Amino acid sequence: MHNLAVRNASRNLMGRVLAGGIAALLLLWGLGNPYLWQDEAATAVLAQRMLRFGRPLAYDGVNLITIDHFAAEDANSIDQRTASAPAAVEYYIRRGDLKADTSWKWQPWGQFVVAALSFKIFGATTIAARLPFALAGIITVLLLYRFVLTYFDNPQMAWLAAIFLALNAYWVLHCRQCRYYSLSSLLLVLTLASYARCQWGKSDRSLRNAALFVVSAWIWFQVDYGTVWPVLGILFVDAVVAERRTPSRPVLVGLALAAAIAPFVYYYELWDRFSAAAQPWRYRFLQNLFNLNEYVVPGVIVIAALALLVSRWKILPAVERRLVAISCAVIVVLLFWVPATAPIGFLRYVIMAAPLGCLLVAWVLVRMAGARSSYLWAGAAIFVLTPWLSLPLRAAARFHGVSIFRPELRLLWSNVFGHRPDPNRSVIDWLRQNAKPTDEILINYEDIPLMFYLPNPIRGGIGAFRVEDDAKGPPDFLVLRRSVGFTHWPVFFREIERYSWEHVPLEIPDVPWGNSPDPTAQAFRTPLHMPLGGPTRWIYIARRVPRKSDPEP
After folding, report:
1. CB atoms within 10 A of CB 435
2. Residues 6 or more apart from 88 whose CB is under 8 A from it?
């Protein structure tokens, strides 16, 4: 008996080490190679300003960070604010993106605190920006293993769930970002684990378990106040149904959590958020269905899990039934929640649910295979290596195409171990060598990475900030991504035509995004044609040629 326990403990340790080792390799290797792209740089710059000002200010008196959402822009008022920094700042405060002192409120501050602490310890570098988020991904894999082992009492299932997560290409790519995605995944698992302790932990520790749940959920809200609501709603319903004869405990815990969150709901002014849909609801729903089915958990697995729950309800342990039901409910609710609240159906809005998707796949495979290990490993190989399980719902999502192997595995390999072209690094390194710190740089998109890596005043971006403001002098350098259609092009055209420019013949690939982890960013985009000279497949970079007629500050 003792030898059996020792062998099981040894296997569990080996399972954790293997899953954690794979996750660490994929999440940490080459972490600092590509420069931060737009969304990552927004987190990093706001974290720097938190260290400097004590809060993440969108405007530091030189450069302005705005939300990366062109559909929310008011084209009718753009001409009134491109020549005045105060007018632009006032517009975004009035629209509800920022607080009156320009403190950022579009996302909660948790991710900025994490990045700021990393900068405080390691300095403001690319690796330091991403490191805490990558470490959170590794912890998520290990925590998922322990969670499944504890509440499903199946080492094989625990190992499969952890390995599935570590090999989920797009989850890994998102966790390698200086962004909240990995933190949200970690806190989802931690909140569910603390909820399980409340339900099935030792009764003499019920108060401590309830406090742990409230703290976990509160921290999750401070990281991602988009995904937390539907999950907390599902957990509350589950607790009330489970304790329907004495519902006072879940109600009291819910009230305590609501009281802890309420001041921050008020501070972030969540009722005053302005969000314009960039796509019709139907398209957002289909895109979200595709993302969930393709990259989080195949729809057939959710259907199979529900079928197994119904057919084996009486013989399954209560804890197993409820956790599987909760996991299925989260996936189903997110299917409708995201298109109802998000302007675009990006994968980033559901990728944090990947741990639950991996749990469901591991549970279905183990329960359906039973003692037939060959069936189990064949199913696991099919899930990891191929998209075949996603095919039945792919047609329903209006997306077609069949491939033998998952194409994202090659993408994962090239991102982690390869050397993909990095437009942001090439542009920034050239400007660092050729621009003086006081030179003003005009850029239509990917403006925030320049704010992180360079000391220069940056004009432009989606909000066309100070594009036509010559109070401090005209722009000295011009950087245009002609592949980007979501900027105020007429404003840029007007400013460009006011000056003479010397084209710099650099062959830097013109793509809309740098190191974006979203599948839509991986597709090739044909650059827009602009009559500026030079090949349109390269980013257009130019120096201003001084003329006597140029306006003086």
Report:
1. 18
2. 64, 81, 82, 463, 465, 466
* Strand ranges for 24-76 from DSSP E: none
Please, is 294 exposed, middle or buried when counting C-beta atoms within 10 Å of its C-beta (0-12, 13-18, 19+)?
buried
Query: Of 416, 431, 466, which residue sits at a domain end?
Result: 416
CA distance 302 to 305: 5
Only one residue has tokens 């980033």, namely 348
Give the span between the Cα atoms of 286 and 19, in whole angstroms.
Answer: 33
- Helix ranges (H only) for 123-247 are 126-152, 155-166, 169-175, 181-200, 206-223, 228-242
34: Cα separation from own chain's centroid: 17
Pairing mode, if any, of strands 441-443 and 540-545?
A: unpaired
Work out the mean pLDDT of the chain and round it to a whole number. 90
Residue 402 near residue 386 (C-beta atoms within 8 A): no
498 and 397 in a common domain: no
Stated as kind and residue range, the H or E segment containing 460 is strand 458-460
Q: Which residues contact 436 (CB under 8 A, 6 or more apart)?
A: 476
Residue corresponding to tokens 């290797």: 29
Contact between 141 and 161 (Cβ < 8 Å): no
Alpha helices in 405-545 (DSSP H): 407-416, 423-434, 448-453, 489-497, 519-522
Q: Are 205 and 343 contained in the same domain? A: yes
Domain for residue 44, yes or no?
no
Q: What's the pLDDT score for residue 64?
A: 96
Same domain, 153 and 201: yes
Residues 501 and 386 in one domain: no
Q: Which range of residues forms the domain containing residue 464?
A: 423-545
Q: Of 416, 431, 452, which residue constitutes the final position of a domain?
A: 416
Number of compact structural domains in the chain? 2
Categorize the per-residue pLDDT at 204 as very low, low, confident or very high, splitting at 50, 70 and 90. Answer: low
* Whether the Cβ atoms of residue 23 and residue 138 lie closer than 8 Å to each other: yes
Domain annotation covers residue 24: yes
Using an 8 Å Cβ cutoff, are 298 and 389 in contact?
yes
Would you give the DSSP letter of residue 75?
G
* Assigned domain for 49 exists: no
Domain assignment present for 64: no
* Same domain, yes or no: 249 and 345: yes
State the alpha helices, DSSP H only, in 278-317.
281-291, 299-311
Average of per-residue pLDDT across 219-239:
95
Q: Which of 427, 450, 431, 442 is nearest to 473 (CA)?
A: 442
Backbone angles phi, psi at 441, to 5 degrees: -115, 125
pLDDT tens-digit profile of 501-537?
999 999 999 988 888 999 887 654 444 444 444 446 8
Give the HSE-up count for residue 444: Cα atoms under 13 Å, Cβ half-sphere: 27
0.85 cut: is pTM over it?
yes
Measured distance CA(253)–CA(218) in Å, rounded: 12
pLDDT digits (tens, 9 = 90+) for 9-35: 777 788 889 999 999 999 999 999 999
Query: Are residue 397 and residue 480 in the same domain, yes or no?
Result: no
Q: Are residues 379 and 318 in the same domain?
A: yes
Q: Summarize the confidence of residues 171-192 as an average pLDDT.
A: 98
Say which amino acid occupies 361.
Answer: V
Residue 365 and residue 221 share a domain? yes
